[in-house]
Amino acid sequence: MRFLETLLNMRKLNIPGLVMLVIGHCGFALAQDVVGPYAELVQTIESAARPMLTAVQRNHQRNHFCVIGYAEDTGGGGEAAPFPSYFVHWREGRQLIQWEGVREIEWSHEVSQADVLTGVVDAGLLLVRRRNQLGADTVETSDELAGSTYLVTRTWWNRVVEDCVAHGSSFVIDAFDEGDPVGYFPPSEFHYFDGTARYGSLSEGLLADAVNTLIKVEDRRRDRANTFCAVGVRYREGEHFDRLWVVWQEEQRLMLWNDDYAQGGAALVRATLDLPLEQSPPAREEMMAAISENNRFGLPRHADPVWRGVMVEHCLKYGETVRFGAR
Amino acid sequence: MIQLLRMTNEPLQSPLTLVAGSEFRFKISGLGPDRRHVRLVSDSLDVQAVVLKADDGNSEQTLKLVVGQRVSPGQTVGINAYRASNSSERVETTPSLAVVLQPRLELPNKISDEAIVVYMLLAENNNPDTPGYSRREVQEAMRCMVSVFENRLGFGPSHFGGDVSTTTVKQLIMAKGQVQGFERWPTVGVGQQRLIDELLRRANDPSDRRFIEHRQHVQDALDVARGYVTGMPACRRTDLYGWMTGTSSENPGRSFEQVTVFGGQKFYALSEAFQRSNRR
After folding, report:
1. Looking at chain A, which residue has its C-alpha nearest residue B258?
2. pTM score, two decimals?
């Protein structure tokens, strides 16, 4: 009978939900409806996990995450639209973190532990209202909850993790240190995405297309010579691709290639970041405007004018420089 | 037509609210009748317009408004444009900008009784960055949280992590395992303090996208903690005794029954059976 009642009360009936329900009555899973898919969400959460790992200084190790969502009955009385509850299980931190969406914040010394000024990061896993660490924020029996606003039983905690393993999406973040790249390379050494295409060089290929498109769009720059430098940055050994920076010398601009494959030849017109090489940090709004909607990686060091100067030096030393004549 | 623009190129609307001690960057697109950049002049020493970048070969100039440290709340300052070549001639094609000044929002000193409630409300509630945020719901949720502790004091603190010596809301908030990050008040948990700091920073940063909403949010927490919000909150009728931060969780104990969900929290009452057998 209880089985039937639960079945009728389910707000959204789907196959994983039914599976969950059956398993739940075998004593393994939560009697709630698992929602998905998570593909897009996982990408967003992964970009939020990096600033969190850096902030708690756990970025020098491999970290495992899993995302699980539950449909929620808002219980009436609420005017806000129902929003599924998502939990992120961070295995190494032994934490269940409630995900409540992207929170863009200004990156600071306190957060980064690095010598940076300002930047914008996704703090969706850092500025959270609810974070349950196994042990510290769990109890053995429901009698020990005593009206707590955050404690959960170890059983409940484990059930969410089990749900995640069975029905959620997992991802791994390898050790990283964005502050210390393993190398700078000319763009011709960089594979583009899956290795089937290459950036090419400033003279030919996708990169040349993007630079020519940029000059064409900024029409008034066509009647004079323009000098560009391009350099690829690799943060981890063995990676084909990480980031490509382009310096426009006459304009004193430093641009980050928009790695959204859909941009193609417009990858510099719609650069992920377009920073002036002046010796003062840009205002927060300028940073916000410079970061494209398509790329939520905060890249905090880019706000530092000293860092920008160093990047130009690396470009001239390790990258490729080409001067384009007036058209 | 000369336009005042935010750094994001959106039109800058008048009036603009700025906070004491803050700076605000913006742009002017277009030149004056003398083909030179117009000069902005404030009618008060409390706000100064400073040119950051102006090249007559480029029709766009970048400026910032710098606000003094001490301002009168609600004071309005006019910013008008004048010809560069004649400082007494107004450029009427440039819209005037009214700037409304407000003091910095500050949280109460932690020594005060209200401080722990304000900090707790900010750490526990949805904020303008949360999907589905509703100011009305969150304001109501804040009042219900205060009611929860008052109800607990009335029913008997020993059922909620307190003991016979527990007589105040502050002691109940600090009770072991009750509100995350508040057991060691006036020290607040690292995660909670980080969130509160960010909310306060945004409430005082006019360039923030949701500056006004964040300001209202912090002000709501201050008002609720100080009892300035009048009228009967909906939760009074249902005698709430608990909540769970966030919307997905188990009940906070076998004696609790879920009553409602709003403002990003699940609220709970005590079961009738528990009330009957334990009411003092």
Report:
1. A75
2. 0.70
